[in-house]
Amino acid sequence: MSSERNKQNIYLVGLMGAGKTTIGKALAKRLGYVFVDSDHEIEARTGVKLPTIFEIEGEDGFRRREAQVIADMTTLAHHVVATGGGAVLKSENRENLRGSGIVVYLDVPLFTLFERTRHDKNRPLLQVSDPLRKMQELHAQRDPLYRSIADLVVSGSRITVQTVLPLLKKEIGEPWIL
User: Fold this and answer.
1) What pLDDT is recorded for position 7?
2) C-alpha dihedral sign at 72, 59, 38, 16
3) Which of 20, 47, 62, 159 makes the best surface tag, with the fewest CB within 10 Å?
4) Rounded CA gap, 30 and 146, in Å?
5) Is 55 contained in some domain?
C-alpha cells in the first residue's frame, strides 16, 4: 500500500445505527485525527436538521448536499469520516471515498440496526409504516455497494474501536502506530 494513501482519511460506511459516529470519534481520538460526521456537517452548513432537508428538498436534494460534503472531505487528510448510510448510492461518492483513503464497512446485523434506530425521529427514511421492512430494503440495496468499496469489513453486533484497531493496523500497516 502506498505511503501517500496512508496520509489520507479513514471513511466509515454502513447502514444507520451501525455505530459509525461512535467508532469514528474513538478512532479519530486514538489516531490524533479530526473526526467529521457527514450528516452533522450537512446540518452545520444548512443550519437545519436532516428531516427538514428531506421535507423541503426531498432525498435527491439531500443526496446532492451529501455529495458536496463528501467531495470536500476527500480533499483533506488525517480525518476519520462517518458517512451517511446512503452515501454509497452515488457512484461519484463511491469513487471519491475509495480513491482517497481506507474504507471500513461496519456490517452490523439487521435486527441490531433496527433496535438501535426504530425510535429515532431523526431518521427520515424510517418514518414509514413498516420501518423493519424499510431497513431490510435498504440493506439489500446498499450492502453490495458497501462491500464494493470496502478495504475492510468488520462484522458483528458489538463492534468497538478495540475490534477495529487491530484489523485496521493489519490493513494499513506502518507508519501508523495504532
Assistant:
1) 46
2) negative
3) 47
4) 24
5) yes
Q: Is the pLDDT of residue 122 over 90?
A: no
Are the beta carbons of 87 and 75 closer than 8 angstroms?
Answer: no
pLDDT per position as a tens digit, 47-58: 999 889 989 999
Model confidence at 160, pLDDT cuts 50, 70, 90, reads: confident
Q: What is the DSSP letter of 93?
A: H
- Go through 91-113 and write b for each residue having 16 or more CB atoms within 10 A of its CB, e for each that does not: eebbebbbebbbbbbbbbebebb
CATH number at residue 44: 3.40.50.300
pTM value? 0.87
Q: Establish if 107 belongs to a structural domain.
A: yes
Q: What is the pLDDT of residues 133-144, one digit of tens each?
A: 988 999 999 999
Task: Output 126-129 pairs: Cβ under 8 A, ≥24 positions apart.
Answer: 126/16, 127/51
CA distance linking residue 137 with residue 139, whole number of Å: 5
Residues in the chain: 178
The Cα diameter of the chain in Å comes to 49
Residue 119 phi, psi dihedral angles, 5° rounding: -105, 5
Cα angle 94, 98, 68; round to 5: 50
